[in-house]
């Protein structure tokens, strides 16, 4: 590669999960600290970071077409860094397959981007997929400006080894960030404008502090930050839903009544083949306990259809479970064989046509469940955290405590928590009517500016 002038502008494109969104924000902050500015809308950036996802096939293939699209008409291209889980999984292979790429950096190594950029400027390509002992978090600049709803990664990696999943390989073993670091980062997020924090982790409820306390301890401490109004967490594993965390849903008002608890399938033979280490029944028992602690909790989950060997009768157990739970919202996917995972080489891979048909049936059931949940919310009065302007003049969009999108019109500003009556339900959102704004906490003495 030829030497190039140091980049003046960057663009970070994140794909996949919320943890990637968080990493993307942190990379942007790091580039900003290096004096590289975000490219403005429509402007070509000197440096493009593709922050990739490897969880399913399409996501990985997309990276290569995205790289191709970055080529300019005159044959040149910006400096390209491939980050995220595809970078971790494919490493050198990306270098071989995509000569336009000058940096490949894994999710645990992106704090080293500045050094890699310096090398790229001199015409050298580099790959860093280390999982170093020193943590990237210590090397990243402090959080400065965020929206009203912010992410905070508290835990990374997974030790569960579900047989279909690449995460234990791309994100490595479970690690929990230290309690004090998290409280400090949360306070910075609040000072930077956050009123809601979503704690993130591949297995967020496996988070433990140095003394072995669970996530509820972190939630409790965060709840004592005055200007922080809401706390959420995602994604959880059924086996890590401890009594303490369940009790937090009863005892801590700021912990929102929403739980994303993937089950993946409703049939025990399939769950065993997936190495989920819970049964449909034990999952339902966890939900019973959570509902007893917080009766209005909204439930969410992930599903995979067409896992190798899944029969039509076994798939029907998934539909039955959906019926029993009454989910508020869900994600559902066709099984995608991931190289290197045990399921990829299992016998009886299910035909794509069969998967398509099952996904359609499942999604119809999940959509109906979501609509029923939304309809049952009509008539409730709740707080909505205003996140952005709506399509129409004077319209605002925000989230209910149950993570539903709510739109309403009237006097509000981004970052406000307003009382809203829910008056009409659609499948994906609700219409609300302003019932009167709750007084905003005096943020000025905390140095907080609520973004307009
Ligand atoms: N194929 C399809 N879906 C998958 N997921 C994880 N691995 C695969 C795969 N190989 C889904 C699971 C998980 C979500 C993040 O992605 O449902 O909970
Ligand atoms: Fe993947 Fe299973 Fe770990 Fe979730 S719990 S990240 S599905 S291996």
UniProtKB/TrEMBL annotation:
<keyword id="KW-0408">Iron</keyword>
<dbReference type="Pfam" id="PF04055">
    <property type="entry name" value="Radical_SAM"/>
</dbReference>
<feature type="domain" description="TRAM">
    <location>
        <begin position="375"/>
        <end position="436"/>
    </location>
</feature>
<dbReference type="GO" id="GO:0035597">
    <property type="term" value="F:tRNA-2-methylthio-N(6)-dimethylallyladenosine(37) synthase activity"/>
</dbReference>
<keyword id="KW-0004">4Fe-4S</keyword>
<dbReference type="InterPro" id="IPR006463">
    <property type="entry name" value="MiaB_methiolase"/>
</dbReference>
<dbReference type="GO" id="GO:0005829">
    <property type="term" value="C:cytosol"/>
</dbReference>
<keyword id="KW-0949">S-adenosyl-L-methionine</keyword>
<dbReference type="GO" id="GO:0051539">
    <property type="term" value="F:4 iron, 4 sulfur cluster binding"/>
</dbReference>
<dbReference type="InterPro" id="IPR006638">
    <property type="entry name" value="Elp3/MiaA/NifB-like_rSAM"/>
</dbReference>
<feature type="binding site">
    <location>
        <position position="53"/>
    </location>
    <ligand>
        <name>[4Fe-4S] cluster 1</name>
    </ligand>
</feature>
<comment type="similarity">
    <text>Belongs to the methylthiotransferase family. MiaB subfamily.</text>
</comment>
<dbReference type="InterPro" id="IPR007197">
    <property type="entry name" value="rSAM"/>
</dbReference>
<feature type="binding site">
    <location>
        <position position="17"/>
    </location>
    <ligand>
        <name>[4Fe-4S] cluster 1</name>
    </ligand>
</feature>
<feature type="compositionally biased region" description="Basic and acidic residues">
    <location>
        <begin position="442"/>
        <end position="452"/>
    </location>
</feature>
<dbReference type="InterPro" id="IPR002792">
    <property type="entry name" value="TRAM_dom"/>
</dbReference>
<feature type="domain" description="MTTase N-terminal">
    <location>
        <begin position="8"/>
        <end position="122"/>
    </location>
</feature>
<keyword id="KW-0963">Cytoplasm</keyword>
<feature type="binding site">
    <location>
        <position position="165"/>
    </location>
    <ligand>
        <name>[4Fe-4S] cluster 2</name>
    </ligand>
</feature>
<dbReference type="Pfam" id="PF01938">
    <property type="entry name" value="TRAM"/>
</dbReference>
<dbReference type="GO" id="GO:0046872">
    <property type="term" value="F:metal ion binding"/>
</dbReference>
<dbReference type="InterPro" id="IPR020612">
    <property type="entry name" value="Methylthiotransferase_CS"/>
</dbReference>
<feature type="region of interest" description="Disordered">
    <location>
        <begin position="431"/>
        <end position="452"/>
    </location>
</feature>
<keyword id="KW-0411">Iron-sulfur</keyword>
<dbReference type="InterPro" id="IPR023404">
    <property type="entry name" value="rSAM_horseshoe"/>
</dbReference>
<feature type="binding site">
    <location>
        <position position="158"/>
    </location>
    <ligand>
        <name>[4Fe-4S] cluster 2</name>
    </ligand>
</feature>
<feature type="binding site">
    <location>
        <position position="85"/>
    </location>
    <ligand>
        <name>[4Fe-4S] cluster 1</name>
    </ligand>
</feature>
<comment type="function">
    <text>Catalyzes the methylthiolation of N6-(dimethylallyl)adenosine (i(6)A), leading to the formation of 2-methylthio-N6-(dimethylallyl)adenosine (ms(2)i(6)A) at position 37 in tRNAs that read codons beginning with uridine.</text>
</comment>
<feature type="domain" description="Radical SAM core">
    <location>
        <begin position="144"/>
        <end position="372"/>
    </location>
</feature>
<dbReference type="InterPro" id="IPR038135">
    <property type="entry name" value="Methylthiotransferase_N_sf"/>
</dbReference>
<dbReference type="InterPro" id="IPR013848">
    <property type="entry name" value="Methylthiotransferase_N"/>
</dbReference>
<feature type="binding site">
    <location>
        <position position="162"/>
    </location>
    <ligand>
        <name>[4Fe-4S] cluster 2</name>
    </ligand>
</feature>
<keyword id="KW-0479">Metal-binding</keyword>
<protein>
    <recommendedName>
        <fullName>tRNA-2-methylthio-N(6)-dimethylallyladenosine synthase</fullName>
        <ecNumber>2.8.4.3</ecNumber>
    </recommendedName>
</protein>
<dbReference type="InterPro" id="IPR058240">
    <property type="entry name" value="rSAM_sf"/>
</dbReference>
<keyword id="KW-0808">Transferase</keyword>
<dbReference type="Pfam" id="PF00919">
    <property type="entry name" value="UPF0004"/>
</dbReference>
<comment type="subunit">
    <text>Monomer.</text>
</comment>
<keyword id="KW-0819">tRNA processing</keyword>
<dbReference type="InterPro" id="IPR005839">
    <property type="entry name" value="Methylthiotransferase"/>
</dbReference>
